[in-house]
Specification:
The chain is mainly beta and 176 residues long. Helices cover 12% and strands 40% of the residues. Strands 1, 6, 7, 9, 10 and 11 form a 6-stranded mixed β-sheet that branches. Strands 2-3-4-5-8 form a 5-stranded antiparallel β-sheet, with no helix packed on it. The chain starts with 11 loop residues before the first helix and ends with a strand.
């Protein structure tokens, strides 16, 4: 406790002590502190709202099966690998279809590369019935290699974060 200033001592030190004492706050009683703590409830973590998935349809910009073999010159004659190039909002998807064994083959390997700003994601292959036929993760260069598949029509879906790029159906079979 501080003593009241002596009215006979008008010094600065006594006046400073009175001001300091007047600014000091007394602690709240313990029962008031406990009641305040009991009233306070921690906030519940808000459930993260699922973000909407943006689905984009890619456009076929190149198909090596549609060009004349003479257009590629003598070096490329007789090749069995088919190359398709798709584009969708800043991304290009290079898809290559090659026989899994000696031609003629009824099993095929699908591999390729996703070119664009994002390179982390997955590639999913579904058949004409919507059944999953394979899935692969993109490597650090955006490359993927799907498991071999039989002749048929397939849809390739590239998932990059919250964006899904769907390629038009691809017919996988021996060229006629």
């Amino acid at each position: 406790m501080t003593s009241a200033p002596d009215s006979r001592d008008p010094s600065d030190a006594a006046f400073e002590r009175v001001l300091r004492d007047s600014r000091r706050l007394d602690d709240a009683p313990e029962h008031v502190i406990q009641r305040a703590l009991n009233v306070w409830q921690p906030r519940r973590q808000a459930q993260a709202e699922p973000s909407l998935l943006q689905r984009v349809l890619a456009v076929l910009t190149f198909d090596s099966a549609g060009a004349s073999p003479l257009a590629y010159g003598m070096r490329s004659a007789g090749g069995t690998t088919r190359q398709l190039l798709f584009s969708a909002e800043g991304h290009d998807i290079d898809l290559r279809i090659s026989p899994a064994g000696d031609p003629p083959s009824d099993h095929w390997l699908l591999n390729g590369q996703v070119l664009g700003p994002e390179s982390q994601g997955t590639v999913t292959l579904t058949d004409a019935l919507g059944q999953a036929a394979g899935q692969a993760a993109l490597n650090e260069w955006g490359e993927f290699k799907l498991p071999q598949v039989a002749d048929g029509e397939y849809t390739v879906t590239v998932r990059l974060g919250e964006r899904e790029i769907v390629l038009p159906a691809v017919l996988v079979r021996q060229a006629i």
